[in-house]
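Board notes (copied after class):
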Amino acid sequence: MHNGTLLAAVDLGSNSFRLEIGRYEHGHVQRVEYLKETVRQGNGLDENRNLTPEAMQRGWDCLARFGERLAGFSRTQVRAVATQTLREARNREEFITRGSQVLGYPIDVVSGPEEARLIYQGVARLLPQSDERRLVVDIGGRSTELILGQQFTPHAVASFRVGSVAWSSRYFAGGLFTPQAFMAAEIAAKAVLDEALATFRPDGWDVAYGSSGTAGAVGDILTAAGGPEGLITREGLDWLHERLLRAQSADRVRLDGLKDERRAVIGGGISVLRAVFDLLHIEQMQVAQGALRQGALYDLLDREQPGTDLRSTTVNGLMQRFGVDMEHAERVARIACQLFDQAAPAGSERASRKLDWAARLHEIGCRISHSDYHRHGAYILDNTDAAGFAMPELHRLGILVLGQRGKVRKLVEVDLNDAGFALQLLCLRLAVALCHARRDPDTEGLQLQVKGNRFALAARRGWAAGYPQSAHLLREEMLAWQKTPWELVAELP
């Protein structure tokens, strides 16, 4: 990463969409521009948990405006991250497909723990370095993240389905503030957050930080009322709670520092924040400057630096957790990437890296079932929390793991016209076949090429006679690609 390179992060939150543009300089990212639009997509989920057409259109319109600002940025310079609303939405693929098109960059839906990790990175990067033990609280529109960490390392992360947008619509319908509504909202929030007590005990941290919307809004109001800048106290929360009750409704609240965009969700945000203070015995909380979008920017940096991509560390951790045969997994990964690099066009390093991860994880399901390990492996990857990975990334790895054996056309949910994916899948399947004896195969002279919609695999003369079982498996592989957009031709003299 060269000094002066521009980087951008797009945060698709439940209440607001944000665009942060920064310039990389000597290991740090300095803000260049910040845009925010109140989209309130979290209010656009219907009773079937589908985003309404109106909610999707609001999001697409915002992303189109962000996309215009990002014109000229390369794909490696932009990270777009979606959170709880799109984790919940059953029709999220429809939104993401068009949203990625109008933005011009892929949108990653991240899991709750991964969102928490990115939030902590954003907070930690903008704090002075110290050895203090930190509790970070981020109350978003439909989820609340809690993180314990020290310096740049999060030690515990958790995400809970409680937030300012969800709680405002559920307990403060019509924007009405009553003592009964606040009591019900706080009890409900504590019921959801109660399991956090076991991990986020008061003796586990030294300083509490509040990140993002609700904490920032409360901090602004308390500072405007004469309190210390950037500090939320229990007394301040009680004062603010009393002011809301006195106003009786959101549209009658008159508070310096309260922005109009925050007015409709202030009741839900305050009730959740008060619940967090009570449960975790917090006396005061500092408002953090960093948030999810800054974490996404620094995550972009880590992915570009050799040896610092957290996803590789996560893959190794999954291999250990599920008892993968390390030697065999590395063998399959090496052969798969060797074949891929022969046939792939220039600039396919990212795809090669993802193929390497899929190959290392191809037997992750063996501990559950030897005969159906590919299906169990795909299920594990679809349902695990893996630091550094977005949910679509894990799903894509899972499809590769699922497709490592059997007929290729069974993968009905993927577009096999995608040449890059088809090549990844073929190389994984070929590597699994070539390594069937669980020892290093003889690949000298083995060459793979792509010619239009044809994969051409050629071996040196005599290879098939020397390795008849491998040759048989490769001929079987030709049959597996029938009735797909691709043809595999293996020349095995």
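Comment from the instructor: The radius of gyration is 26 Å. The mean pLDDT is 95.
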